[in-house]
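User: I'm putting together a teaching handout on how multi-component assemblies are represented. Below are the sequence lines for each component of a complex, exactly as they appear in our records. Could you produce the 3D structure of the whole assembly as structure tokens, so the students can see both representations side by side? Please keep the chain order the same as the input.
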Amino acid sequence: MHHRFGRIVLPVLVIAGLLVAPVLTSGAPRTSWDAKACGRVGGTLVFGQAQDAVTLDPADATDGFSVNNTSNAFDTLVRFAANGTQVEPGLAESWRVSSDELVWTFKLRRGVRFHDGTPLDAKAVEFSFQRQLDKKHPYHHGVFEYAEFTLESVKSIEAVGADSVRFTLKASNAPFLAMLAMFSNAVSSPAAIRKYGKDYFKHPTGTGPFKFVEWVQKDHVTYEANKDYWAGRPCVDRLIIRGIPDNTVRLLEMEKGGIQIMDQTNPPDYARIRRNKDLVLFTGPGLNVGYLAMNVEKEPFNDVRVRRAVNHSVNKPVLVRAFYEGIGQPAKNPMPPTIWGYNNEVKAYEYNPEKAKQLLAEAGYPNGITTELWWPNRARPYLTQPQKIAEALQQQLAKGGIRAKLVTFEWGTYLSKARNGEHPMAILGWTGDNGDPDNFLYVLLDADNAKKGTASNIAFYKSGALHDLLIRAQRTSDQARRTALYRQAQEVIHNDAPWVPLVHAGRVAAYRKQVQNFFPHPLDIRWFYRVWIEK
Amino acid sequence: MTRYVGRRLVETVPVVFGVLLVVFVIAHLTPGDPVLIALGEHATPEAVEQLRAELQLDDPLPVAFLKYLSHVLRGDLGRSIQNNERVTVELATRFPATIELSLAAMLIASVVGILTGVLAAVRQNSWFDGLSMFVALFGFSMPIFWLGIMLILLFAALLGWFPISGRLDYTVEIVRITNLHILDAMVTRNWTALGNALHHLVLPAITLSTVPLAIVARMTRSSLLEVLRQDYVRTARAKGLRDSRVVTRHALTNASIPVITVIGLNVGSLLSGAILTETIFAWPGVGRLVVDAIFARDYPIVQGTVFVIALVFVAVNLLVDVSYAYLDPRIRYG
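Assistant: Of course. Below is the structure of the complete assembly, with chains in the same order as your input.
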């Protein structure tokens, strides 16, 4: 470059560019997503996950593979922050709550269009929600399991004018806003739903940063950049999401550059990825818990001393080191520290097999107890190597006087039986959906969820005191009050010890060095909107 | 002959019905709720009950089976529990991939297997005989899973001669008529796609062919050895015919009957071996479809897939039986 050019013209251009840039990106209100700029525009991003999508209808998807797809092609009214679980404006630029906390009114952004060109308006939003909830809706094609779960508290939804949507709740429900940000509440184009009917799940049409191009089923889905995206076009031109079942093959593809980001790495492969200069291994705290639930309706687990004895018999740091490659932390509460309201003051039951034996003797079992330890035969994020972990626990418990026979079933069977309370002790876990404490504590430990056959509270723990705290926390949206209530709830749970909380697995993601702005979200959903690829 | 074929076709009806019945019963009686699997830890009691009702999972078994049967007779294999797609459509999009892989594997197994078997028999007890039979045994004993990954590691990852996984590079455009990439590419004269598809097919086809190849090689060898000992072969040699003529014209056709039988039977093992191969190579075929469906308790998909596989099996075996008449004139069907 000419000397003068470098000294004068270039700095001027840079300054001019900096002045112009905010103007170019203005029009969309600042959210945590906007803060991430594209270092380079263009290129194709290929993401490899363990399975291809099952469905591309965001309202009907329940598995992570489908959700990783739909979350890039669709938007919700409100969305999670780019690097946390706080809720931010999405398709709704603002909202108000009535004083009785029963009516939420969302004001939609103007000028947003679906990928098929039809406009996003209040009627479209209403249609999108009603089709999930109303079984008599002409386009209720699908099962929409998450609608039940996330919109439980909603009494009615109606469009108000062209750009406002009003949700009236049955009772004040603070977690409602976080529920609304969940993937199943994405807004679909009514025109597309009408056009494709039962085949809509193969023709996803949303407002998101990536526009659907084609789906070669069981292989990959192709998207192209939505250049008219309301928050600014995505950095890459094309996004391809592939399904590659074998973990080793997926890693090989990434090493060779066939894919740039992969999901679900094997812990034994972490060292190999770290050694590879072309790859990055991201680790961070997870939003999950692995636990051992004791069926408090079965002897001897109806005695809190026995439950505490079990707690004293487990050596958690050893498990984390051995089976999670150190990526994760021992758990003392049912919910992980990444969630607001976590009570760090709870005093964990220390590892002390002698104390365990003592407690068992006090409870009337001087020779210890003989029981079963159930474990699920499928790796989960919170349970990386189920069989080995179960075996390790069996050995640990034996030192505390608890002789447990290992019992396992294949995943579907295991869930059925655990939900039916057939186990004395069972290992299970939970991954948070929306970063709200209610999503952990109420779902997993409240009396409301302890019905045989469908229980998500597989300890069948029914505490009036806990129930009272959790319901009060649902009924107010005052964050400080909710935090205080949840902190108390964790103390109650700790004292009653229906579980041994085992571990909060860390989250891991691996990608190639050229991938920039990729943040593996705590909710374990892969958003690629602001990702760009260095040349 | 036509009467024979007709009779055989009629006989397939109870066979297929039996298969359908057994699969239906096993699938439905296996513990595990498709609803719970779909929802995972997230099922709420209401969601579970609602879904069960919508999927009509609460019908008593005989009623459910009769409903299913009446649909099958009308060509309706039902809809997937996981995404509501018609089972016939799912199968139609997936089967071609498996067919392509299986045919390629079958081709390799038959051609290489027969050649090896013939050479080994003709040069019995030579180094070639010993080595080839050892290699055959090795291929037969090695788990497909391990073999596939070894091939990928060596030829794809290390040497870079072949792609690692998948059926086609996403950068390659192809018009999907039958979804058999090789055929579609040739028909549309899309030579890039043809080359790319073949390139992707090599490693998985080799992996899948190892077991049938070993069986065909050994079967050819032993069958041919037996035939070569026959008097008429000695006569042919005594007449002064060249050895190669003796083998190909006189011995091989007679030796081929057991070999054809074995190839036909191997179609079944290919379809099941395809499951492992498809998993490793991320090959979007019917093997992966049915495995995923089993774990998800997606009854319509499992039933539909097994039904179609049973039909394929029956058809292949019929073809094998009919081919006997051409290979051995002594065999007649009345």
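A couple of points students might notice: Residues 9 and 318 of chain B are 8 Å apart (CA to CA). Chain B touches chain A through 54 residues (CB under 8 Å).
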